[in-house]
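Fold this sequence, please.
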Amino acid sequence: MTALTLSTAGAATLRADALVVGVAKGAKGPVLAPGSEAVDKAFDGKLAAVLATLGATGAEGELTKLPAASGLKAPVVVAVGLGPVPDKEDAYDAEALRRAAGTAARALTGSKKAGFALPAGTVEDAAAVAEGALLGAYAFTAYQGGENKLAPKDAKSKGNGPKLPLAEVALLGAKPRDKAYKAAVERAQALVEEINRARDLINTPPNDLYPESFAAVAAAAGKEHGIKVQVLDEKALVKGGFGGLLGVGQGAERGPRLVKLAYTHPKAEKTLALVGKGITYDSGGISLKPAGHNETMKCDMAGAAAVFAAVVAAARLGLKVNVTGWLALAENMPSGNATRPGDVLRMYSGKTVEVLNTDAEGRLVLADALTRASEEKPDAIVDVATLTGAMVLALGNRTFGVMANDDAFRTSIHEISEEVGEPSWPMPLPADLRAGMDSPTADIANMGERMGGALVAGLFLKEFVGEGITWAHLDIAGPAFHEGAPYGYTPKGGTGSSIRTLVRLAEHTAAGDLG
């Protein structure tokens, strides 16, 4: 993990590999953002003109490197675009700061230390820069480096090895001795460490990450952070009647697990339950996915990774709210033992489900976990899942959908997600779509009308939420795994989508802001 410090040094005197400054897009060219004053002074007040000569405009995501002036200890200046100049001085959008810091951190991969002289005049600005820089300074290198696994343990690798992320971020312009700044930066560090742990899990190949090994990771984290962890293996799932988890996992050699993580606070007045879809590999089962759709299906456990990360982050931050996470873990594989289209599963709730498509498996494992979570009567349940391709078609690759059985709760989650920089959109649960899941054989089918498929999936899940419990469903199928080129603080691969939303939701719940 990249180190983060609130530096007491000035930009001109900091010894580092690079200095990062912000530049906005003005009507007549690039405009230097607050924090860059000392760097601009070293350029005799002509830094903006030099950047303009080099083609910089201040557009969001734009990055310009140039040799530092002689008055600076760092040899390189990195100017990163913040987008349009804000209407009010110093009122830069938090997400613009996050993305700019992330862009700079990615560009400084392989460096030991960089000073970030972006706007940090308020606690909120400093937190955004810290968050963005740490999120951007991420790389998944566990399987790189050319190491020969069969060589003696003391043998040195002959591979060139991957470039490591920026080792240290020195945040300039903040107030190192101010308790509020310290708390904000410490929160950012704890939060991003868990987001990056979730990214690692999502990126881990499925031959190494499967239900049992994921459960072991959760158990180890629970022991480290004082979280009670319970793992139900196949025998316990059979005894408990968890037909959804067992039905999805029965085609795989490695059996399913249901993991409960319980963080409690002695002064908590509310309990929030989080439920995550954890399909560690999704082949589609007997309803096999076509060629070209399997390669990234290690990411189908991103919902469970998000829930795991959120619970651990809540514990590390000491939030005054009880947060319980439920990880519904299974591999969905085709075999002679696999569930077939037409089979009927008896769920943990007692309801029967006719399986019309084994590739609609996420809702089956979530259904069991939602019912089990409901038994503990939490104040609210939020499930998170890479659930439907239909949601990607509706909202694209960067926005997740929010459905709920309570409009006010759905609105709150949408507003929270926008606040933390995770785009979402409220989606309905039209009652007329429920009839499409009627089954002549069972209580309900796991498929309904093709049009509005993401909403149908939400309606299916609603059937398994306990009566009177406020519930929301986040379909993160689009933003959970990024296949394109990195941008801002978003890497290629697992993103950690929805974790910041879940943690902020827990914070609001602890503060009593959600009723």
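The longest strand covers residues 271-282. The longest helix spans residues 179-203.
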